[in-house]
Amino acid sequence: MEDLTQLAGRQWLASQADSHTFKDCKQIVAIAAGICNRCGSKVKAKLPSGKYYCQACIGIGRVVEGDYLIRNVQEELFSPVKNGGLTWQGKLTEQQEKISTALVKNFHNRKNTLVHAVTGAGKTEMLFQLIAECMRQGQRACIATPRIDVVNELFPRFQAAFQEIAIGKYHGREFREPGLEQLTICTTHQLMKFYQAFDLLVIDEVDSFPYVGNAQLHFAAKYAVKKSGMRAYLTATPTADLLAEAKAGKLEILKLKRRFHGGLLPVPKEKLFFRQFLKKERINPHLLKEVKKVIQAGHPLLLFVPRVEEIPAYLKALAQDAELKQLKVKGVHAADPQRIEKVQEFRERKLDILVTTTILERGVTFKNVWVIIVAADDAIYTTASLVQIAGRVGRAKDDPDGLVLYCYHRYTQNIRDAILQIKEMNR
Amino acid sequence: MNICLLCQQVFIPELSWIELFSLKKAGQHKFCTQCMKKFEKLTKIRCRYCDKNLSTEGVCRDCQNWTKIYPHKLLKHHALYRYNDSFHDLMVNYKRYGDYALREVLQALCAKELAKLKFDCYIPIPTSPEHQATRQFDTISAIFAELVPLTPLLKKYEKSGAQGEKNKQERLLSPQAFYLETDQHLADNISQGRILLLDDIYTTGRTLYHARDKVLEEFPDAQIESFSICR
């Protein structure tokens, strides 16, 4: 009999043809009453055989009617770790400390919590005590987030802070199946591979795509955590349904209005444009002027454009300008195979301008960066997106301010609300 | 209201004037305009033989290489779209993950054009039995069976491997993997006819040339051309 300990807390698919039985595992039908038991979706599509299959979670292996889900629920896998394995020596601000303590208390009481903290408040550091407490008790924790970039950003920070804990890092581009680590950092999609695995589940950037409004991922998040476990959500821009849950008393809400360095959030500047931003491969001269201002001020620039298809046009247009020609400019988008490398290059200041879509709207920190949003009035930018993008600026203690520029043709409700929200948090 | 098969979002189909006044149902629209736009049609200037997009009229390098093996007998191929990232994603979902419902997207992309090509007989490129067993459907037949009457003459040997898992060099060097399964009745019908070989993607042409070789062995007088959704 093979050892299934490595697969503790996991669930996986076994086809009907597979007569293998797994010791001590629960075996349930994968599709029952027209519902996929892995992601909770209604199954609608059929194979030629007439069997239903689930389209919603097909990316991690097709669930077909008649297949089984094998669930390996195990208790007490880890032993308590002294000090929770926390090797971090830093100090929290008074406000961070308050939140951190409240989180630990809520973990003891298993009270689900929403942390609403402004961008750059130092949310990651506020999690350290909470994670340490979970490790100290010999329990298992997971930090999940919808974004691959955020996973890549969080992982080294936790590695540095918890040098005695083995941390697993998993997302769709790691091409690895989750293993048995006491602390897992992964995308919310990976949660579908777990079943009642965690005593503590933290979801960072809980209001972001694709988690927000995605019933399958919510389903996965619900079942990845033990019945006796606690969930904590983190965001700078909570959605209405989270706030409603808080109001209904199902979630405790903890608010932090100040950045860790005590400075205010940069309030975005707005600029009205009459002509198109890009016409026949030429950038609007007024927009170009704004780009040059940033470069002259010696700051790296994140240039947000609404659509992937526009990136090459902007790159080409920027390369044609006499002044900007010698700069190092690249473009990045979700499906870019070199996405991770490019983001790293920009972080290391090897690039001057990074033209990007909303994939870099949150969860990433670039020192001294300024941002310009082209077509901030585009429907793709929600209020939360606009607030998050503005939140990329002024995150360092020695450089707490900077330029955020919303370029628009039409002043939208979202732009208005975003600026109001930022001002409200600054009050 | 329709739900887009690709992005799973609700969309309102854009109806042409003809559709508006005809009795056709709007339910025929399988995906939204945003998703539709992601698929690029091949532009006008193409290789005379394989429909590859070129900068100037003529014969592409791939086909020039094929003339070395098939002098004066290049395969006339018909293709519709460029194999771009969106197509790649679609094919990954359809073939690797086995999302059978996506055949309807592929059908919608090629139905009109395929109907314009009048042939006597349509032969789908087969998939290997192992792949068919895991997917529980035949990727090519599933697309075309609902569009044209198929004559599934070609079969693929077991364990012959998939072209999609190889690089260009390996693809070109891959050996003949097809065999014919025919009977007298079929043979009488198609021996003189015009045959169209059907595939999803044309990459090097190796597969389709192999398929043609096999069919010609049995039906040396047949006129054979080929069709794929992308090039």
General description of the model:
- With 427 residues, chain A is of the alpha/beta class.
- Chain A has three domains: 5-71, no CATH class; 82-256, P-loop containing nucleotide triphosphate hydrolases (Rossmann fold); 269-418, Rossmann fold.
- In chain A, 27% of the residues lie in helices and 21% in strands.
- In chain A, the strands form six sheets. In chain A, strands 10-11-9-12-13-8-14 form a seven-stranded parallel sheet, sandwiched between helices. In chain A, strands 15-22-21-18-20-19 form a six-stranded parallel sheet, with helices on both faces.
- In chain A, strand 5 (45-46) and strand 6 form a beta hairpin.
- The longest helix of chain A has 15 residues, at 94-108.
- The radius of gyration of chain A is 23 Å and the shape is globular.
- By secondary structure, chain B is an alpha/beta fold.
- Chain B has one domain: Rossmann fold (3-Layer(aba) Sandwich), CATH 3.40.50.
- Chain B contains ten helices and eight strands.
- Chain B has helices at 17-21, 33-37, 61-69, 85-96, 103-116, 129-135, 139-144, 168-173, 184-190, 206-218; strands at 2-3, 10-11, 76-81, 121-124, 154-156, 178-180, 194-201, 223-230.
- In chain B, strands 3-8-7-4 form a four-stranded parallel sheet, with helices on both faces.
- Chain B is globular and about 50 Å long.
- Classes of the chains: A alpha/beta (427), B alpha/beta (231).
- The interface between A and B is medium-sized, with 15 and 11 residues.
- Chain B: Belongs to the ComF/GntX family.
- Chain B: InterPro entries: ComF/GntX_DNA_util-trans, PRTase-like, PRTase_dom.
- Chain B: This is ComF family protein.
- Chain A: Pfam families: Helicase_C, ResIII.
- Chain A: One of its GO terms (molecular function) is ATP binding.
